[in-house]
Automatic annotation (TrEMBL), chain A:
Pfam families: ThiS. This is Molybdopterin synthase sulfur carrier subunit. One of its GO terms (biological process) is Mo-molybdopterin cofactor biosynthetic process. Keywords: Molybdenum cofactor biosynthesis, Nucleotide-binding. Heterotetramer of 2 MoaD subunits and 2 MoaE subunits. Forms a stable heterotetrameric complex of 2 MoaD and 2 MoeB during adenylation of MoaD by MoeB. During catalysis MoaD shuttles between the two heterotetrameric complexes.
TrEMBL record, chain B:
It comes from Alkalicoccus halolimnae. GO terms for molecular function: molybdopterin synthase activity. CDD domains: MoaE. GO terms for biological process: Mo-molybdopterin cofactor biosynthetic process. Converts molybdopterin precursor Z into molybdopterin. This requires the incorporation of two sulfur atoms into precursor Z to generate a dithiolene group. The sulfur is provided by MoaD. Pathway: Cofactor biosynthesis; molybdopterin biosynthesis. This is Molybdopterin synthase catalytic subunit. Keywords: Molybdenum cofactor biosynthesis, Transferase. Its EC number is 2.8.1.12. The keyword Translocase does not apply. PANTHER family: MOLYBDOPTERIN SYNTHASE RELATED. Pfam families: MoaE.
Amino acid sequence: MIKVLFFAGMQEAAGTSEMTWDRETVTVEEVRKHVQEVYPQLVQAGVVPVAVNEEFAGEEDPVQAGDTVAFIPPVSGG
Amino acid sequence: MEKKRNYIVTTDVLDPAEWIEHVIRPEAGAINTFIGTVRELTKGKRTLSLTYEAYVPMAEKKLAQIGAEIEEHYEGSRVAIAHRIGRLDISDIAVVIAVSSPHRDESYQGSRCAIERIKEIVPIWKKEHWDDGSEWIGDQLEKVSYADKVKKEEEQ
């Protein structure tokens, strides 16, 4: 099971803070596509940075069962 | 006794003095503090309050990474950073950065570097509340590249 987290405006657009995806091994890019299929309103899921287990990850990086993927829309702390 | 954590994201009120305590030491002859507060007027719009949200474990990790970068780059510097989340009112303290160093230049530069990096890589988001609505700041629906977006002159 892969856990996917949404924050800020994406969380509001999705209407949920997280979802799960029952897969063994995929890539970041595949997670993006899956999220957009489940939540077509999340257009930004195709472009915003993604973190896997709390580190920014690239498109081809693997995502495995047990991992946590987080979409990181443009930050505005400080 | 538990070692003091130098990098935290918290719902508690921030006390700058506490963060100065984290970095004060005999080797330092300078401490620079940056305090970010909630501003009422932004581009002519009146903010009533702000809500900050964070991906807390990653945000604390990234604050620590920024501190480590500064300590490595500015010789002899020591860093502590606290960011508050939740609902904040006008003039509430949102972030405290304390940097100590043997001489003043490294503290000044390190402090500036820390706030700029926070605005680039730390997963914390700000929602502004006005009397006619509210909005997450950061242009999250525009399809521009992330690099362009973080370079936009952000508030504060």
